[in-house]
Amino acid sequence: DSGVTQTPKHLITATGQRVTLRCSPRSGDLSVYWYQQSLDQGLQFLIQYYNGEERAKGNILERFSAQQFPDLHSELNLSSLELGDSALYFCASSAGTGSWETQYFGPGTRLLVL
Amino acid sequence: AQSVTQPDIHITVSEGASLELRCNYSYGATPYLFWYVQSPGQGLQLLLKYFSGDTLVQGIKGFEAEFKRSQSSFNLRKPSVHWSDAAEYFCAVGGGSQGNLIFGKGTKLSVKP
Questions:
Q1: Out of A48, A96, A107, whose CB is closest to B43?
Q2: Percent of the residues in chain A that have a pLDDT greater than 90, as a whole number
Q3: Using one digit for the tens of pLDDT, what is the confidence trace for B1-20?
Q4: Rounded CA Rg of chain A
């Protein structure tokens, strides 16, 4: 158990809908990262937050947004969903922002868009 | 730009045999390198990491990896594979000024009895 929790575990929805994925980092970690894992793209970095502020952006679509709240949990919002958004979405946390820091991954949320 | 290549998509080894999973990276400076393992239906678990010092790094579950700057490689090894090692293995590099990880496509390991 990494100490990172993600809810829900599974999500099935229809095209055009909006969903929210939730992540609670390990106790004491200030950084939260979101990654998308799909068969064709592999593991892709989406976005990072540090202590409530956006820190870095990767290949995140404009339809997607995220935020980190004062209690450090984070939410990833996916809107106008398309079939191609079906994937496993991981949240990871680390103590700080350095590239050398270990990132601890949650179990993921599997999203299926029908 | 940083990148990670794992040349082998799928490897099958017999239980008790040795294992080496290959990883090559492209990075301008001294890289921070990681190996993660993902079991079916699970998240990613860190096996080991390299960020400085001794180029031979020991990890959990009997794994080790060697950083070779001249070959831009960070191969993962295990002397004797167990059936429970069947999983997908990902090599990653720390992304410079950004803290995110850049992952390879992964190598799926199957273990024959």
A1: A107
A2: 88
A3: 789 999 999 999 999 999 99
A4: 13
